[in-house]
Amino acid sequence: MTSHQYQREPDASRYGEYLSPMYYALSYTWGRWELEPDRSPETKALDVANVSWPIPRIRPDRFTAAQFQRVLQNVLANYMVPKVELSGGHHNMIQHIYSAPQSEFVWLDVACIDQTPGSPLKAQEIGRQARIFRGAEKVFIWLHGIEPSVLWRAVSGLFRAGGEATWIYGREPGQLPRLRGPVLRGDEDFLAEAVTSLQDLLTDPWFSSLWTLQEAFLSPAAEIVDKDGQLLYDLRSGGPGGVEARTPIDLQSISRECVLLARVCSRSVAIKKQSTTISLPPCELEESLLALIEKSGLATLALRNPMALYTMSRKRTTRDPCDRIYGIMQVFDFQLGSSAPAVDPGKSFTLPELEIQLGEELFRGMPLLSQVVVHTEVVPFGHAWRVQASSTMPSLADHLTYYRTSSIWGAYEPRCNLSTSAQSGTTWGRFGGVSIPFSELVEICRIVNEAGFYQYRERISGQEVPYEASEPNGNYSQPKSCFQLALDMTELTIGSPYLSSLELSNISPHQQNQQSAALELASVCEGKHLELRVILLGQYVDERRDRWDWGMTEDKDFSRGEKWNVGILLSRPFPSNGVSHLNQENVKWRRLGVMIWDLANNALTGRTSKEKEYLLGEGRSWEKTEGLFG
User: Fold this and answer.
1) Which of 110, 115, 481, 604 could lock 514 by a disulfide, CB 3.0 to 4.6 Å apart?
2) Per-residue pLDDT reduced to its tens digit, 500-532
């Protein structure tokens, strides 16, 4: 095997003497089993020619160099194509037809990235990860930590359980999903099978590696290969004439099953926990399955929300804390820290420095998306403007975030300028836009909710159906709210018995729950003599909203689409003279959370012009505001 060095050309990529060759990429994990130079000298590394660095040696109880070589050969052999070879003279030409691999090139990190510690070339190549994986003809995920028979049993068990979830949710051909699927008993066979299957699948270290997280996000269609490098096939659907179809199992098909299972279990758990009048079965098994799905990150990956990667990275294994940034930055097309093109090769960066760089780049590239996170721990004043190790994605983000195909990736109406400013050794977020008192906006939303003009429409598997307020027994649900809150953990929420009892990143979307949380937050701020305002970040519009862009539906056209205003909640002490000046650029505000409110046509139908102005971010109550926040 030979490594061909990358050389950038104006309109192409050259690898040695080959110009833009078709290649595959292999996603796998090995760092935890790398041998130190002085250990097990008899253990050989993968034999690669034309490299200037030592190829890492791996503990043979994980995989040997010979096994690695065989896996690479099998990966190439998974896709063969006919080729023609001509021989003989002009008058007796002989044509030979034979099978050969579709591609002879595989991008392999140990053979293509300089493994010398601190190498500038290594940092630069890491900065090209997005282009490498997006440019690959195919990406393969090598699960070398699980026996092939166990892997097949786990995946097929997950598919069977997902099929049960599909049936429960009513997604039959030509039918809209039922919103009133049965409450699960909690002892269904498919739940137990799903739990066992996911437990087995997650024993493979690929699902706990930090670096594979970025690769998974960049390559949702990556195909699974087992310990021997053989493809797994989905045999559930028959081909023409009853011939068994052989469809390679890819990452998005596994994620799709996790999404379906999570939706069924989440709905069942919510109904059980909301019930106050009758006794319902326990939900331990559903909660166990939900915890496994969250741990795997598979359902989160399906949402295609790049901001979720940093929060997911906390659950992944890495040797260097800074890799929590380096390992995900390429999904944003960022080159940060030592990977930046013009950086001093000898300079090193700390994790807080990299977090600031990430926050600054997000402000420039995707300011709205940068704030659709909440902090699950109290963050020092001045730091809450940027994503932290304790940050997580709020449930309301499901309405907003799409990767690449989404209008949130820059094609939205911005209403606020975000930047940074260094003040006394702390880097603050800086904002300039319009704001409204929180209580005024909540009151308008309450009027819209209670007047009955707002009809929440829930989208399941890409299909849109009206929300049914009267479920069995009438106590399990209530109408959804036209606004949703997600709150940071702060001294204010800790000091409120009601707010501290809530899951602040996942407050129930029902009207009563949202209204109660909003009123309590306003009351707490008033009691602390704090001014609480909503800063309008911008408007998200997606006329062709396709929630499951990983193939959950073939319907790509929705008449309603999505239209939301997005704001952040900021507070500060009321001025001692009682006069609130909102355009003082160095006044410091505390970030308390994020709020979205629905601007879809059915939310505004029949409203007065004043109410529409409030919701749209217009009118006299919206005032120009600027300052620092964090």
Assistant:
1) 481
2) 988 898 888 888 889 999 999 999 999 999 999
- Supply the DSSP string of 256-290, one letter for each residue: HHHHHHHHHHHHHHHHHHH--SS-----HHHHHHH
Task: Write out the DSSP string of 33-93.
Answer: GBPPTTS-TTPPPP--BS-SSPPPPB-TTT--HHHHHHHHHHHHHTSEEEEEEEES-SSS-
Q: Give the H or E element holding residue 421.
A: strand 417-423
Beta bridge partners of 99: 82
- Structure confidence at residue 377 (pLDDT): 94
Question: At residue 362, what is the residue type?
Answer: L
Query: Do 384 and 591 form a contact (C-beta atoms < 8 A)?
Result: yes
Which pair of structure tokens corresponds to residue 304? Answer: 């295609």
d(CA 628, CA 630) in angstroms, rounded, equals: 7
Q: Phi/psi at 39 (nearest 5 deg)?
A: -110, 140
Q: Is residue 127 part of a domain?
A: yes
Domains in the chain, number? 2
CA distance 617 to 312: 33
**Is 150 part of a structural domain of the chain?**
no
Residues 130 and 112: their CA atoms lie apart, in Å, by: 14
Q: What is the pLDDT of residue 237?
A: 54
Give the separation between CA 408 and CA 414, rounded to whole angstroms. Answer: 10
Q: How far apart are CA 295 and CA 195, in angstroms?
A: 12
pLDDT at 162: 87
Taking alpha carbons only, the member of 318, 133, 291 closest to residue 216 is 133
Give domain status of residue 358, yes or no.
no
pLDDT at 533 over 90: yes
Q: What is the DSSP letter of 575?
A: P
Which tokens hold the place of 191? 């739940």
Residues of the domain holding 482: 374-629
- Measured between alpha carbons, how far is 567 from 485 in angstroms, rounded to an integer? 10
| Measured distance CA(156)–CA(193) in Å, rounded | 10
DSSP 466-525: E--S--TTTTS--PBPSEEEEE---HHHHH-HHHHTS-TTS---BHHHHHHHHHHHHHHH
CA distance 37 to 186: 52
Which is nearest to 16 in space by CA: 104, 89, 110, 81? 104
Lowest mean pLDDT of 96-105, 143-152, 173-182, 546-555, name the range: 546-555
Angstrom distance (rounded) from CA 61 to CA 598: 55
Domain boundary residue, one of 81, 110, 138: 138
Q: Is residue 207 part of a domain?
A: no
Domain stops at, among 138, 158, 174: 138
Greatest distance between any 2 Cα atoms in the chain: 103
